Amino acid sequence: MPAAAKQGSATSGHGGFHPTTVVTGNPNFKIFGVPICTTGDVIAPHVKPKAPPHSSIVVGTSKMMVFGKPVVLVGDPTACGGVVVSGEPRFKVGK
Question: What is the span of the domain harbouring residue 64?
């Protein structure tokens, strides 16, 4: 089972964009004191010349919802084609 993403989780780089981190999470549901990530949470913007900035998580699992939003897991995609690459290894959710 993949680990759940949390505020501060890393995302991959892609297409010349550098890796970045998740900067938001749901403050009402915390994993060991850190907000859990759900779809729509924001990643730190990454930009390159002549390309628009982009910065959110678009897919989560239907196996766990937090306030009606799917929880994001390691391996879930960002809006820009990257993926979440780190999470809380002590908090895993089935796909």
Answer: 3-86
Gap between the Cα atoms of 17 and 67, Å rounded: 32
94 within domain boundaries: no
49 domain-assigned: yes
Q: Is residue 95 part of a domain?
A: no
Question: What pTM was computed for the model?
Answer: 0.87
Q: How far apart are CA 19 and CA 29, in angstroms?
A: 25
Report d(CA 44, CA 66) in Å as an integer.
22
Q: Per-residue confidence of the chain (95 residues) as pLDDT tens digits?
A: 999 999 999 999 777 778 889 999 999 999 999 999 999 998 887 766 666 656 788 899 999 999 999 999 999 998 888 899 999 999 999 87
Number of domains in the chain: 1
